[in-house]
Records
---
Amino acid sequence: MTVDRDTRAVLAQNYHPLDVVLVEGEGSWVTDVQGRRYLDFLAGYSALNFGHRHPALVEAATRQLGRITLTSRAFDHDQLAPFALGVTRLTGTDMLLPMNTGAEAVETAIKAARKWGYEVKGVPAEQATIIVAEGAFHGRTTTIVSMSTDPEARDGFGPFTPGFRIVPYGDADAVAAAIDATTVAMLVEPVQGESGVLIPPADYLTRLRALCTDADVLLVLDEVQSGLGRTGTTLAQELSGVQGDLTTLGKALGGGILPVSAVVGRRDVLGVFTPGTHGSTFGGNPLACAVGLAVVDLLEPGTLQERARTLGVVMTAHLDALVAEGLLSSVRTTGLWAGLDVAVPGLSGRGLCEQLAARGVLAKDTHGDTIRLAPPLTISEEDLTLGLDVLGDVLRKAARRTGMDSVEG
Ligand SMILES: *Cc1c(COP(=O)(O)O)cnc(C)c1O
């Protein structure tokens, strides 16, 4: 299906999508304009953790569409308090500030950390610094790309926001060396999603937690992608037994229906915001809160997190076998989330995703030879295995075409 030239003329080309035009989705499956069906192994970068049009989420949204959808924060509505109570209960946190997109949640955390630094920690005016990690992805605003190390995300968008120190990801010693009296926060993803599901050393988060506590620095964990069940726990930080002072949530919080994000964390930190100091017209709107609360209801029993763990074992076994065959050079998995590096000469991540799409499986490359798999947590084991078998098949055929001698058959 090719997009005609008129469309290209009117649509900004800030994406390079695969050549599919989707019209319908249900659960783990989507259908294109020609009626072809595909397994969705990307799940909206984890925004679709519960699959397409999960009945409970559609029900919550439909019910709220028949009541009230927008009030602005100038007035309260009856979904806001239950949403705040639900998300803080689910995450074991004290307080919530609702926003819309992940980038806005990160911006909110940056502002909270700076204000806390000046008003509570006593950092001299305009001096606050925040430590961030190389290869991080926290969104696309001008301030957030100021702390990016990805030239594609940065080039041409300066001048940048000052006040960030960038250290290698996974290196707690580098964080220790970067902390000084001006440091208000360390902002980091527990698992780097866009970088290709990079998992830091096992003691990384616990060491960061101790460093931050000792130096009176806030640990801000960006769980926009890693949070809400993906890693087999409600939050990825639980795997290390740490709690961030602030945690950003997004993507799956909107149930694949609309953008819903939030910062949750310590009351004495989010408490620095007073009326008028921060806000959003759409943040915490009734429709968003109704859907977000239904997401909390889906996660509260813990069965989806358990599913992510169980299915993750199945996925890891399949992918490890492809590494053993020499088709992948490495694989990183946590829960139902995988980053894999293609080892077939001449086959790029993009090329692999194109061939997968032709065989009815949708995935997306992150960088170069790396692709990420993040199927819905609701996927059946049968569908998961089906998609992974297609992946193996596509890799094997591509390897045979290049005459790769490490591959048999
Ligand atoms: C996707 C993502 C964001 C940005 O979310 P948007 O809703 O696209 O603004 C921020 N942080 C992480 C870790 C993400 O994966």
Note: The chain has a mean pLDDT of 96.
---
Amino acid sequence: MEGRFGIHGGQYVPESLMGALKELEDAYNFYKNDPTFQEELTRLFNDYAGRPSRLYFANKLTRELGGAKIYLKREDMNHTGAHKINNVLGQALLAKKMGKTHLIAETGAGQHGVASATAAALMDMECTVYMGQEDIERQALNVYKMQLLGAKVVPVTSGTGTLKDAVSEAMCAWGRCVTDTHYCLGSSVGPHPFPIIVRDLQAVISKEIKEQMMVAEGRLPDVVMACVGGGSNAIGTFYHFIDEPGVRLIGCEAAGRGVDTLETAATISTGDVGIFHGMKSYFCQNEDGQIAPVYSISAGLDYPGIGPEHAGLYDSGRAQYVPVTDDEAVAAFEYLSRTEGVIPAIESAHAVAHAMKIAPTMDKDKIIVITLSGRGDKDCAAIARYKGGKLYE
Ligand SMILES: *Cc1c(COP(=O)(O)O)cnc(C)c1O
């Protein structure tokens, strides 16, 4: 069945949303094979977002760790500073083709809200962003950016007033305004066809890695790895390697203060199968099956679930998922900054941290590619505070 990954995925939504999902699926199936759509998307990727992003050989990092060769896939160099622009440009273009005039989006830390507001400004669309009240207070700068870009930010006070509540609210709101509105979902999660649309748009990452690696080394890498929140930069990094059995796929989850504590967001390590946000997948839940509050130092990884395609790749054993704690991610954030002069997003630092563990155990002729999902400017004040410093934003 379409939109299933083993037992995961599906469309667990109220009947009132089924029409909207069907309309989106039909439109997407048409436009993904439409050469004009693909040309326009490529032009936006290249001229606006700055693609292709570089595949950079991290010489110093490799030498210091003393094992496998490490390459960085530089999604942090994209316009707006992360991989999220790939997804929003594609969805906004699709929405435009469908005759929609309005984008709605959810956001946690505000990164996807800013990306959506950016795409809406560029494409002359209205934009409404649902954001938890708690997050609005924590992320004032991103709220300002969204408003500067012309978007309206709607506070969500239900539940814990954070990302999961913003997703629920955006999905509900979409049901009331589907005729002129597209729901620009921010990760490879939610009901079919969202996980497939977001994956296809982010798959440009692995397509480029493959081509760039053939030029640089004349062969495929041994490991590709990325951090996993909902899983969009990771599935984009994995996609064109799924059918290459010689390439190991590793997703790095946010363990927060540790997988043996309640302050964690490591879904594969600590979660169970459940149904939430329109999909079957793994979720962090309490003993009643309610969604558990999750925690990570990294706002972008602070989601209680994981995309259904990752859940399927985990079940089949094709991909491996590892937990990385706050402390390990912060150490990697500092280490990459010092060794390569690259300040990674704290999300991306989770993948760097795991590479620091495995690279020294691998032979020097092996190759690792780490996707740097974003840049770390946004995290500097928080990390300084975490380390006990006083830095005011
Ligand atoms: C949002 C975000 C993530 C997490 O989202 P995925 O869908 O798991 O990729 C990771 N890194 C950065 C920089 C982000 O902004």
Note: The longest strand covers residues 248-256.
